[in-house]
Amino acid sequence: MYKGTVGSAGIAIGKAYLYSKPELVIDENVIPENMVSMEIDKLKHAFEVTHNQIKEIRDKASDKLSEDDAKIFEAHLMILDDPAFIEEILNIIKKESISASNAVKKVTDSYINIFLQMENEYMKERVADIKDIGNRILENILNIKSDSMNNFSSNTIIVAHDLTPSDTASLSTSMICGFVTDVGGETSHMAIVARSLEIPAVLGVGNITGKVRDGDVIILDAVEGNVIVDPTEDQLEFYRSKKEKFDKMKQELKKLKDLPAITKDGRQIEVSANIGTPEEINKVIEYGGEGVGLFRTEFLYMNRDKLPNEEEQFLAYKSIAEKLCGKPVIIRTLDIGGDKKLPYLELPEEMNPFLGWRAIRISLSRHDIFKTQLRAILRASAFGNVLMMYPMISDISELREANKVLEEAKLELKKEGTLYNEKMKVGIMVEIPSAALTADIISKEVDFFSIGTNDLCQYTLAVDRMNERVSKLYKPFHPAILRLIKKVIESSNAYGKFTGICGEIASDPMMIIILVGLGLDELSMNPASIPMAKKVIRSITYERARKIAEHAIELSTAEEIVEYLNKILEKRNESRD
Ligand code: PEP
Ligand code: MG
Q1: Would the pTM count as exceeding 0.90?
Q2: CB 293 within 8 Å of CB 522
């Protein structure tokens, strides 16, 4: 049995699929003339193998996929079989005396550039197809085993060293029942995506990719954080029953979804959801979310070749606002950098990316990107209850600078006669201790705060949220964190502003009690946790939560606080039995 961190709760039993990203090393040197014919043979052979592979995938896909989806592979074959395509590559090999791989790269890159310039959206979408084919040909030239991420059998458990948020988001998930990775922690973006997809994930297991072979049967106990490879019959039986119980409990909790989150003595807390794509709104509604407390807009910028334009963004924001029918949606401006990269936006390699050029820092130095997004959000604000917040604010001057660009965007829209909500509420995320400590100053110029404990913990405790080696030091119940949260809520209350929390800890039952006790107004979490959060809030009085929070915050260590809260939860459970 191997141990890791729970990234997304649940139990999964399935077959391992070892996912690895092949490294395509391309020889860019000029080659001797006598090697040209060899490179030509290599190219022709690679085309043949690629053709056969795509045909095989197409035949398999036609059984499983809808007609439209299966057509993708027909399109791939058409591109591959176009004689002009191979002719162009052959010509460059001969003319420039370069390797087959180098020539394929050059030709596919030039095709991609041409397609990107086209006005026609359908043609632009073909870029992904060309990239896919180009990579497949390259893998065949370089003799690299390809991982077809979209060609799984059912109940597949992806075993990977690491998965980027865009890897995870782009997976065809219907066949996947679990994820296990060597690296990554509970608040990595990979975990966040797994939670929204409701796929169990155990992360940071160490060298799991070295221990598992393709096709091995695996049990993921993503409640305890355990991974069992090649289980015995007894283990399989035990976990099948555990899975059944877990899934049943999830269904039971869902019954609470439409009830308000109101304490026994009448204090109402808003329970909202964190989402990354407009499609997730269905989950928010399914689980009884009272709004969206965090829309991570960066996912709109991922899995593509260039920045989304104003219209695309506007349509995405507008569709969320409309689907929520008057319930609030808090749109966070672009939070890129750190572990979230955009291939087309050249972010410099940094020693400490989480302390570097990320989030609002990028927006404030790239007004072109920032203002496009602000205009899109403002335009969407005319179609629903839209609020907006800036990520990674460290002090009031950054807020002012961002608001200046917002005013410019408003003025432009006004001049154009475009509709927007002049009174759209603007807040900040509190993710940096300096913002929490100066919340009394910032309160005067914001409408609300949303505390991002994922980053607040990492910056307060100096613990990389992605590094499992130091994950033991990542303690959201650390007295320092609780004190910072208290400070923000008090400052915000003093100015009549509202305070929410959208870090992952917002769905922890023990933390919920503390947060309610500290006077928080809103909790935002992964949609599936909403019914449980409502259950916790509905089972306690505000008065009692206040006393618990008061006591907890005076304790000396995170361990003491957790022990105290555990005892309280145990007692409550016993008294209910
Ligand atoms: C946070 O830092 O708590 C947060 C919600 O933002 P993200 O996880 O996207 O960095
Ligand atoms: Mg953050």
Answers
A1: no
A2: yes
